[in-house]
Amino acid sequence: MKQNLLLSTLVGYIFISSFYSHANAQTYQNISVTEAQTLIQQNEHNAIFTILDVRTSGEYNSSHLNGAFQRDFYASDFSQQLDVLNKERIYLIYCQSGNRSGQAFQIMQNLGFDHVYNMLGGISSWISNGLPVTDLLPPSLDLTLDFPVAHIINSVDNIEILPKPSSDAITIDGDFSQYSIKIINENGQLVRDYDFVLQPLVIDLNALSSMQHFISIQSTMHSALSVQTNIK
Questions:
Q1: Is domain 149-230 given the CATH code 2.60.40 in the classification?
Q2: What strands, in cross-sheet order, belong to the sheet with 213-219?
Q3: For the chain, what are the domain ranges?
């Protein structure tokens, strides 16, 4: 009887250990551009899937994969910029030819990211395979970031943008003490600076020009934490 109980306990322990080991398994994989395209298609509606371009801003602004966010591999604090990203997301990373993303791939492993896919050959191989690129900025929050700036729109956290971007005006409410808020146009030029404002902040969209505009919210405590969302 004791042997059966001991065996049952041991089997149960092995099952639970196996379950948690599988649940916590990490994924680090080098994939081809065609495999990357399939991965993107499979995760089209996956809220935790992120495409990350690790080239310079100039390279990124010229053309990038649709929906990709950018972190500059050559930035002096590149590792720190990666370290503040949400490590539980699924990342597809790429650069121009695969060299920088290969090194970023190793850094992200060392930092303990859960799921990282590195696109071999970079965007050069992507383009040579006839796959599409864009020069448009992602029209959404940079969801690579963790709390608090990853949940700004319609959240219950420190800052809210209400309502969802509308035709006339938006209101930003919350505790601005650790954030600077700016409006930037599609050319990267500063249009409004709201570093020192009273809450709530109401932005009249009709007062902006017809080009595309973004709200940029920057943490004053952590230089790597910044986020922007398309408002017009």
A1: yes
A2: 190-193, 179-185, 213-219, 226-230
A3: 25-128, 149-230
